[in-house]
Please model this.
Amino acid sequence: MSRLTIETSTPLCLLQDAGRFGVRHLGVTQGGAADWCSMGWANWLLGNGLDVPVIEITLGGFAVVAEEDCMLALAGADLGALIDGQALAPWRSFKLSKGQTLQFTQPLLGARAYLAAPGGFDAPKVLGSSATVVREELGGLDGMGLPLAKGSTLSYHGEAAQLREVTHQQQPDLRSNEPLDLVLGAQIGQFSGQSLFDVFNSAWTLDSRADRMGIRLLGKALQHQGLPMISEGIPLGAVQVPPDGQPIVLLNDRQTIGGYPRLGALTPLALARLAQRLPGAQVRLRPVVQEVAHREHVEYLQRFLNS
Model:
């Protein structure tokens, strides 16, 4: 067993995996890594299953000290990572010697970094997952949904692998301003024609009032012309429009049902990109049919197998 001691942390640093499935009928949300692509690459670097537990570090403010020599991997945002003061770039596995400190300072590119260990970090499974959902008090190091805290110990039992890097061609482009793909939903025809034009022809600003439940998009107010809805199940990435007309993208820790009309849902690849955008950034939306979104998703997953 290898161990790391957490030296500093914030409430935004959490243990995550692929999420909790098959329990939403109980009112339990999905959870899991907000940027599943970066989580997958962090695990790929060590030969892990793509869904084993990793550390999701949001905006920095996290540091660990190695209690033994170890090998780890880092993917996702560049949060100014340092090993004993020396810069460490993401998208690679690396060695951390006993007594060395790995520190994440502040965002340089992107918002969320993912730290992986051989075999995944040790944590109990609650309802089939170790994903931390603070609101529901589920998952994490002790199964009680607590954020990672100073003085806690991270451990893993996997074998170290060879050092690897994700090629530049395989890395998600965190600088990309490509529109976010939106699969149109059942209520799309209930919005005014002007609103439908504005949705896909205007820039939307990410509100600072954002968390793992959802991100509000600020822009031209959208007008829903349909009848009031009965609450129904909400998928990951759903873009709902409350009475003020400002859309909200629902993320991993969303509620399980809702009664606001929805434009549709962002694709998984679009959600991974959105998870790396900082408050104040601008995004655009692009309509896409489900068949195209599914094909692109499968093609992306093939990258892990072919790399």
The domain at 180-226+235-306 is CATH 2.40.100.10 (Cyclophilin).
